């Protein structure tokens, strides 16, 4: 520990703009560092939620509240440096280079965590309603699925080592355009025979091996919860279940199934599909307002980004 030291005012301003909460390590105020760091995270989450659905009519359309922290941090740090008591104990982190190292380590951990482990996504459309609606956000677990990128930049790819289950909600690279991320629910696993007819899913699970009896072909369990009018159409809301996973779906009674637009798998009927090895069949919960495997086919496991584990 060192004594008779004082942080430089100009460096406090520079770090305040560039490093934000980390400037308070430089001016020897660890409690303020934690305060501003937590505040920065909370305000950033608030801004993200506020701007999830852009609306030009709102007064806050071009305002981000995190900007206020950008202004406050350098001003607060500068005043601390001007009134700094040189006789107080200088902690180990109160150094220009240690502050830079701490900030660099924090950003490295943040980037690594988002690239390889967990990444947030926003929901832009209604295809997964009612479970996920425009403006909602989800956290996706990525480790083990092999697609590792940061802010759209591919960092690393490996072979997938994790198997999805029926009912899982997943983010994946669109099979026809890998630059676009889609979010849907897994319905069919490799080897499954899937039929979508009269707004009902039928699944014949793949045979495990030749020594056991193959599973039968049956409709997915669903129970009507309620019916309501939306934009002039009548929607039915069902509780559907796949294995141990239960969720809600909605169907539009005024919508006719566009069977002739379905993906036509060779050797199968228009509304039937056999899921190939290392692929999945996915659907949106808003069954009559979703472009999914019915229309463009199967999702290769190499396109899976990760599984949704939380939403807000």
How would you describe what is shown here?
Strand 5 (169-174) and strand 6 (177-188) form a beta hairpin. The protein has helices at residues 9-18, 23-26, 30-50, 66-82, 96-116, 293-296, and strands at 118-122, 137-141, 147-150, 153-157, 169-174, 177-188, 193-197, 200-204, 218-219, 221-230, 233-242, 245-252, 272-274, 279-283, 299-300, 304-311. The mean pLDDT is 92. The longest helix is centred in the N-terminal third of the chain and has 21 residues, at 30-50. Helix content is 25%, strand content 30%. By secondary structure, the protein is α+β, with helices and mostly antiparallel strands. The protein has two domains: 9-114, no CATH class; 121-311, Umud Fragment, subunit A, CATH 2.10.109.
Mean pLDDT: 92
DSSP summary, beta strand count: 16
User: What's the helical proportion of residues?
Assistant: 10-25%
CATH class of the largest domain: Mainly Beta
Classify the secondary structure makeup into a structural class.
Answer: alpha+beta
Form type: elongated
- CATH topology (level 3) name of the largest domain: Umud Fragment, subunit A
CATH architecture field of the largest domain = Ribbon
Q: Largest sheet, order of strands side by side?
A: 1-2-16-5-6-14-15
Given as residue ranges, the uncertain stretches (5+ residues, pLDDT < 50) are none
Q: If you compute it from the alpha carbons, what radius of gyration comes out, rounded to the nearest whole angstrom?
A: 26 Å
Family: Belongs to the peptidase S26 family.
Keywords: Cell membrane, Hydrolase, Membrane, Protease, Transmembrane, Transmembrane helix
Enzyme class: hydrolase
Main location: membrane
């Amino acid at each position: 520990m060192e004594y008779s030291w004082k942080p430089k005012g100009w460096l406090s301003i520079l770090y305040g703009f560039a490093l934000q909460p980390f400037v308070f390590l430089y001016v020897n105020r660890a409690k303020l560092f934690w305060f501003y760091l937590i505040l920065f995270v909370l305000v950033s989450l608030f801004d993200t939620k506020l701007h999830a659905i852009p609306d030009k009519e709102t007064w806050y359309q071009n305002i981000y509240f995190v900007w206020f922290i950008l202004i406050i941090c350098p001003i607060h740090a500068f005043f601390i440096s001007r009134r700094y008591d040189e006789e107080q104990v200088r902690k180990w982190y109160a150094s220009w280079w240690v502050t830079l190292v701490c900030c660099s380590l924090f950003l490295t951990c943040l980037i690594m965590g988002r690239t390889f482990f967990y990444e947030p996504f926003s929901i832009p459309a209604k295809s997964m309603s009612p479970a996920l609606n425009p403006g909602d956000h989800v956290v996706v677990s990525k480790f083990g699925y092999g697609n590792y990128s940061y802010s759209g930049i591919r960092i690393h790819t490996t072979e997938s080592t994790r198997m999805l289950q029926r009912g899982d909600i997943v983010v994946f690279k669109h099979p026809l355009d890998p630059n676009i991320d889609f979010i849907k629910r897994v319905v069919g696993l490799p080897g499954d025979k899937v039929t979508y007819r009269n707004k009902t899913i039928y699944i014949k699970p793949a045979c495990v091996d030749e020594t056991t009896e193959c599973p039968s072909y049956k409709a997915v369990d669903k129970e009507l919860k309620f019916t309501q009018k939306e934009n002039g159409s009548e929607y039915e809301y069902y509780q559907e279940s796949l294995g141990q996973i239960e969720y809600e779906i909605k169907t539009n009674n005024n919508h006719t199934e566009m069977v002739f637009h379905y993906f036509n798998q060779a050797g199968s009927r228009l509304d039937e599909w056999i899921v190939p090895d290392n692929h999945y069949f996915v659907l949106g919960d808003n069954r009559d307002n979703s472009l999914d495997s019915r229309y463009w086919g199967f999702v290769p496991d190499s396109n899976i980004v990760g599984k949704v584990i939380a939403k807000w």
